[in-house]
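Protocol step 4 of 5: obtain the predicted structure for the target chain.
Materials: sequence only (see below). No template structures provided, no constraints applied. The aim of this step is simply to have a reference model before the mutagenesis design in step 5. Sequence pasted as it appears in the construct record:
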Amino acid sequence: MQRVSHRAIADQLKRKLGASRDGRLAARLGWNAQQLSGWVKKSATPLTVANLVVRASAQAQVTAIVPIVEFHDIRAVDSLRGAYQEVFDTSSTASRYAQGLRARLKEAKGIYVFYDSRGRALYVGKTQRGNANLWAEIKNAFNRDRDEIQGVLRVQHPKRNQAFDSEVKRKPTRVPVKLHELARYMSVYEVAPPLIGSLEALLIRGFANDLLNKRMESFGGRD
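Step 4 output (structure tokens):
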């Protein structure tokens, strides 16, 4: 019987699970880096493969939903070229915490929630099909035009240099706004790909009257 190296199995698992490095795979399997390092040096047997399947199955229930960041402050800033708004500063002078969070979001898939200044949920989103990551999806939603359902009442006041006239009555009108004008906090969760669609549907359907989501998602949807 031809044996396969554990290293080859680990590399395939990283691809299938979306784990970019050994440390991420070790966490998904409930090991530390040292345990995984020792395991990949061996060759597979029917018993070791069976043990791995049992371990992965049990650990999948523990790591199916992992918080990345919760109620993180949103400080919208212009992107490098001013084309859109970033959720937080990602320039070369940004803090190590911000740079680390961005890197983590770029390697993960899952669910994100935007909240207003009172901590009430505004919008729930997910990573879409293909190679999309949480960082890309969050930026997209943060800057997306949603004129038909995302608006607030405001008064259009003069911007040119003119005297104030209290006799002029300016009527409040509904104007479209983007999420970056409303959102104050965000929470982001890494989610096992088979669960992403159903988890998003659960959140949207459970809080449908509070969210700006237009589409009512269905359970059992595929990411």
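Step 4 remarks: The mean pLDDT is 84. Helices lie at 6-17, 22-29, 33-39, 46-63, 96-106, 134-143, 179-182, 193-206.
Proceed to step 5.
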